[in-house]
Write a structure and sequence with these properties.
The complex is a heterodimer of chains A (224) and B (383).
Chain A lengths: L1 E12 L2 E13 L4 E6 L5 H8 L7 E6 L2 E2 L5 H10 L1 E5 L10 H6 L6 H13 L15 H13 L5 E5 L7 H16 L3 E6 L10 E6 L2 E2 L6 E3 L1
Helix pairs in contact in A: 5-6
Chain B lengths: L2 H11 L1 H38 L4 E5 L4 H7 L6 E2 L2 H7 L3 H4 E14 L2 E8 L21 E4 L1 H7 L6 E4 L2 E8 L10 E5 H8 L4 E2 L1 E6 L9 H12 L3 E5 L1 H43 L1 H9 L4 H38 L11 H28 L2 H7 L1
Chain lengths: 224, 383
């Protein structure tokens, strides 16, 4: 599903060059729930964005379903993101002026099928009573479930979740992780980056990232 | 959701920002509409005022003795009456001349005193411009007496006056002008020709020049060159003081509006651009998520430029209505002579509906391009 070869990402900043990722090699199998753990600033989000065809690496390659992501044109990468990759963020990134149902449908078109799928997801997330509410009227847990529904709308084969439980209490964090686990059980692949431990119990595998590098075993890979 | 419904939802969500942006556009369109509507009235009024300054061109028979002309006030030569039709028919004449009026002026003796008989023909104007005739209308068989002549003859309106075997009714005795017109007698051209025995003859065509050149330009040489081609049997002289006054008055009005329009448009453009930039900054995260969901730069551009276009159309409609109302309510007080001519100029609505969205979209273009080129990864990571 995903293969990362010698992936590096460096930034220039006022304080000099920042090596956000350094020669990462990683392979994620189809249907795997992978948790990437690391402290703040370890490069987790950078890795996730690079895996999601959003951030061109300084060097190295990212292969997704056999395609070199950054060998593709920007419109082809956008098309992959629209159909094959779903994103969930810690800050939810819901659009404030859209209702719950419209936020979920952002990822799709206006067809009847999409609308039915959106309604089904909203129901499965327990948000049917909130479908016409705006994000400002929702709790943090509800917002994240809307974001999850949006990420799942187009039935992507890969979901990339960036600290999806970071702003949630343990109960809601567990709920979100369970939804991701359920989605993985339907055959999708999930990569979740976090600094906490909430998601580890749902993961097939947990790897550790520190200062842009994957740590070697025994901590680097913890098979479940 | 369609782009239009997304834009509408966002406008409602950020209503204060949208209203401020709209207010700027409405102000520009309203002021432009009010200015342009009153400008038309101002132009009409200026033209009328400058026209009322009188004719500033005199077309005389070529052989006129100019010493004598200035001494006695009319040409000692005559030319055929048909020349005015020839001049009026020549191509492009009304680009240079306006309100052509033929007259025959002769000195006559009246009650042991001298007077000047002036026979005037109706003014000839361009058929397609439908200008109103200048001066007063004289009916055949009537005479208008200058103030001094009226006093000398002791006549009043309704009395009769015998002139050269013609019996004319005094239509009016004119007020005192304080110039040579006080010793004039005005009749129709035809009556004057019979009285003086100069049938079919005129000795002056009065006109207004349309050149409106500045004082340092020389309109007389242009007028003379053109007249030589059209009417070689005549020559033209210009009342320079009056012509300059006309030109300056018109140019002043035109300059005022040519200055105001760009200032208003630039101010409006800056206003819209500032709010568009603020909007892009506020929506960094939204732009990032749209891109993460696979939407391209074109989609993002449509969101921002579409918003600018929509506000432009709204601004045009509201601004036109306000500007028009302003012009109709304030205009008549400012332009009293042409007050009745101030009316809704519907063509400006069409222009506003085209130009305001274009101005708005052009102002939002740079912010929209910044939104398109924004690195979505960066904005998602920062927010």
């Amino acid at each position: 599903m995903l293969k990362v070869e010698q992936l590096s990402k460096h930034y220039r900043s006022s304080g000099g060059q920042v090596r956000s990722l350094e020669q990462i090699d990683l392979q994620v199998s189809e249907g795997e729930f992978l948790v990437v753990r690391g402290h703040s600033g370890s490069g987790k989000t950078t890795l996730l964005l690079a895996l999601g065809a959003m951030l061109r690496p300084t060097s190295g390659k990212v292969w997704f379903q056999g395609k070199d992501l950054y060998g593709l044109g920007s419109s082809q990468r956008a098309s992959l993101r629209a159909t094959q990759i779903g994103f969930v963020f810690q800050m939810f990134h819901l659009v404030h002026y859209l209702s719950v149902v419209d936020n979920v449908m952002m990822a799709g078109g206006r067809s009847k099928e999409i609308k039915m799928r959106a309604e089904g997801l909203i129901e499965s997330m327990g948000l049917e009573h909130r479908r016409h509410h705006r994000p400002g009227q929702l709790s943090a847990g509800e917002k994240q479930r809307v974001a999850l529904a949006r990420a799942m709308l187009m039935r992507p084969s890969l979901i990339l979740a960036d600290e999806p439980t970071g702003n949630l209490d343990p109960k809601h964090a567990a709920e979100v992780c369970q939804h991701l686990r359920n989605y993985r059980d339907e055959g999708a692949t999930v990569v979740l980056v976090t600094h906490g431990e909430a998601a580890s119990s749902h993961a097939d595998r947990t790897i550790h990232l520190e200062q842009g590098r994957l740590l070697e075993s025994p901590l680097a890979t913890e098979a479940r | 959701m369609t782009a239009l419904s997304l834009i509408s939802s966002e406008l409602i969500h950020r209503k204060v920002q949208a209203l401020l942006m709209l207010a700027g556009l409405v102000a520009v369109v309203a002021l432009m509409t009010a200015y342009l509507t009153t400008e038309l009235a101002a132009e009409r009024e200026t033209k009328r005022i400058t026209r009322d300054l009188g004719f500033n061109l005199r077309i005389l028979p070529r052989e006129t003795d100019m010493d004598l002309y200035w001494f006695q006030g009319f040409s000692n030569q005559t030319m055929p009456e048909g020349l005015i039709d020839k001049l009026a028919r020549s191509e492009g004449v009304f680009m240079t001349y306006n309100h052509l009026m033929a007259s025959l002026r002769q000195s006559i003796t009246l009650a042991e005193g001298q007077a000047i008989l002036v026979g005037v023909a109706p003014t000839v104007t361009s058929a397609d411009k439908q200008k109103r005739p200048m001066g007063f209308t004289i009916d055949e068989g009537t005479v208008h007496l200058g103030h001094q002549i009226g006093l000398r003859l002791g006549l009043k309106a309704g009395d009769r006056l015998d002139l050269g075997g013609q019996s004319l009714e005094v239509a009016k005795v004119m007020v005192e002008y304080g110039n040579q017109e006080d010793v004039y007698l005005y009749t129709t051209l035809k009556d004057a020709q019979v009285i003086t025995g100069l049938e079919g003859q005129i000795n002056e065509i009065k006109a207004i020049d349309c050149l409106c050149l500045t004082a340092d330009q020389d309109p007389v040489s242009i007028l003379r060159r053109e007249l030589e081609q059209r009417l070689p049997e005549a020559k033209v002289i210009q009342d320079r003081v009056q012509a300059d006054a006309r030109a300056r008055q018109r140019q002043m009005v035109e300059r005022k509006f040519s200055f105001l329009s760009p200032v208003l448009m630039i101010a409006g453009a800056i206003w819209v651009a500032v709010f568009a930039m603020l909007n892009v900054r506020e929506r960094r995260s939204e732009i990032g998520i749209w891109r993460a969901l696979g939407k391209g730069g074109g989609f993002v551009a449509v969101l921002f430029l579409g918003k600018a276009l929509l506000l432009g159309w709204l601004g045009a409609l509201i601004g036109f209505a306000l500007g028009n109302a302003l012009a109709l309510s304030v205009g008549p007080d400012i332009f009293q002579i042409t007050a009745k001519a101030i009316r809704t100029e519907w063509s400006y609505l069409g222009w506003a509906m085209v130009w305001t969205p274009m101005l708005s979209a052009a102002s939002a273009f740079i912010p929209a391009m910044l939104a398109v080129s924004q690195d979505p990864a960066q904005s998602l990571r920062e927010s």
